[in-house]
Amino acid sequence: MKPSDALIIGGGPAGSAAAILLAKAGWDVTLIERKEFPRRKVCGEYLSPANLELFRQLGIAQDFLERAGPPVRRVGLFARETVLTAPMPSPRATKDWGRALGRETLDALLLQRAAEAGARVWQPWSAVRLHEQGEAVSCQVACRETRETKELRAKVVIAAHGSWEFGTLPTQPLRRAARGSDLLGFKARFHQCRLPDGLMPLLAFPGGYGGMVHTNEGRASVSCCIRRDQLERCRRTTPGVSAAEAVQVHLSNSCRGVREALSGASLEGPWVSAGPIRPGIRPRFTGGIFSIGNAAGEAHPIIAEGISMSIQSAWLLCERLLERRGEALTDSVLEAVGRDYAVAWRHHFAPRIRFSALFASLAMSPAAVALLLPLLRWFPGTLTLGACWGGKQASAPA
């Protein structure tokens, strides 16, 4: 098969955004996604206002604004019996506010635009092996439904497969033994939630943290991360229930704000779970493969910047690849692009990742929460400042 210009592994926000940008620029793009859409994902679903300009160039801005939940103008904290709110930082250079949109809707929009831009979408196919073949990279792919296998070739390979699931690719994590400190993710949606419109509170509870926000179709999304050892304690104190049910009980018992918001609310479908999550910074270019999205690095979900960072990382890489249009994509050229991309990625995202790690460790510690709550009650504007540090006022990559 004739090599594609780019082979993208993963059809989530990062992979689909990269496919749109490259295909619109005239590249021959192949995208591999292992699951059928729509799919539910453990995700907070919030997107900062800086993404609106990127969405306009990706061709989904109008769809996003029409379908997303209400503008998020306030940040909050639900911890123990404390319920605090403060203004969200005012957006820079835009009149738009951040909003939340279900991943099954957002992912489908982006993947559809990628196909419309000319990318060939292989779905549901998984990448199982990569190896160099002359001046291209060969990728063995397998269909989940038929177990058929194929060999695809490309000059540029972009890993956008996330970081939570094990696999055989050099950019995927190795399986390791379970640890008590592992963070496991849970998410559910509720109807008739009493959370005020436009408010996105942080949930701080023993052994974990989370968030709530109104998303599309009048639903509220509740997502959280909890340590494995804390989850085991929760299940021992609430025998006979599922892990997700134990998490919901723990949330309600630990946060008055959650208890009041979900009073009378109805659960839409089952909880979904994933993990352990892997916050941190990883190689952005190694072995001839570019990584974007969570495959390149991720912040603790406590700052609700995961989707934004994924899409923006795709933008940073594609901008640098397209600057080389017309040049032969030799190993030396790709290495130069990789170095430039890695520096730009670290500049844009490393501070948020470091801040999120500090913030997460404080939110999960009952002792730290007990010390900080009096300060936050006196100075609730600290929540606004924290949202700034977490990237809520950051501009889109230029």
Question: What is the structure about, briefly put?
Answer:
With 398 residues, the chain is α/β, with parallel strands linked by helices. Helices cover 36% and strands 27% of the residues.
Characterization of this structure:
α1 (13-24) packs parallel to α4, α5 packs across α6 and α8 (306-322) packs antiparallel against α9 (331-364). This protein is globular. The protein has a domain at 4-39 and 103-174 and 279-363: FAD/NAD(P)-binding domain. The protein is an alpha/beta fold and 398 residues long. The protein is built from eleven helices and 19 strands. The strands form four sheets. Strands 1, 2, 7, 8, 9, 10, 17 and 18 form an eight-stranded mixed sheet that branches. It has a seven-stranded mixed sheet with strand order 5-4-12-13-14-11-15, with helices on both faces. Strands 3-6 form a two-stranded antiparallel ribbon. β4 (74-79) and β5 (82-87) form a beta hairpin. The protein has helices spanning 13-24, 51-58, 61-67, 103-117, 228-237, 243-254, 256-261, 306-322, 331-364, 366-378, 381-389; strands at 4-9, 29-32, 46-47, 74-79, 82-87, 99-100, 120-122, 125-133, 136-143, 149-159, 183-191, 199-205, 208-214, 220-227, 266-274, 280-281, 285-286, 289-291, 297-298.
